[in-house]
Amino acid sequence: MLLRKLLGETDFKSESGFGTESSPYILSTDFPFLVWTSFSWKKKKVLLVADSADNIFTLWPLEVSQIVAVDIARKACFLNELKYAALKHLSFREFHRLFGPVYQNDLFPSVTPEEKKECYLKVRPSIGRDARKWLDSQVGITDFPSPCWRELMFAHLIPHFSLEKEFNRTKRALRPYPLFNLPMETALERLNEKFDVIYLSNIPEYIKQSLRLEERDEEVYLILEKFYKLALERLRHGGTLMTYIFGNVDSTPDLLSPEIEITKNLGIFLKTVTFSFSTPSIKNSCFTHSLAIIFS
Prior knowledge:
alpha/beta; 12 helices
């Protein structure tokens, strides 16, 4: 069973705009695993956002030593418990049915809520009580867990979702991981641990977006600086921070302008990696995203 830990409060706030009752992503919407293999992960201890659990699953086959996951969204934590149990106990076909779309599309077979419930009941005994209570009210009654079209159109990028060989490889490497229902900001303050790698996902991007929508542009630098300093304090010597950007920082460096200034002022090194991919749902498509790596 997946170990799930809470630290008291349940009503957390984050400058990213996400909250405790935010809806979960069923499938990953960021794809750092497309370049994971460019880095050394063996025996590394990693802290990251739980999200849809897909980024977590792609790290286990790379021989990390430990993963600690956090997420402000309660339902994302429940989804992690469900996905962990499903990957551990279901076949590739059953996994697809449980997390596949309920609507017609040209990419993956559609499934019914009843078919999802049949798969869910097979793993239900392996899921914690709180998660089970919420999942019982969703699976087979609503469309959950059915990915939205934006998630589905990039599902082919997720190794364990798109290829049975990778699914089985991930299943063999899978291990339990502690999961905290906390915003990353709070976790960085309270978890008395050090990590080799901290993956912040796109939290910095959402912080920028949220503050600018609230016309708090002048606070962006100070809030991000505090966030990055907290993360750096949780790194072991020689560790790295990673953050995801939905865009090409080579052609649009302003996407990282706060990070460039912050790392310069702190006297630390910032490196970026850009990568491109497409979706079969859009002819001749090409998307370029970036990963920013900050070295302690």
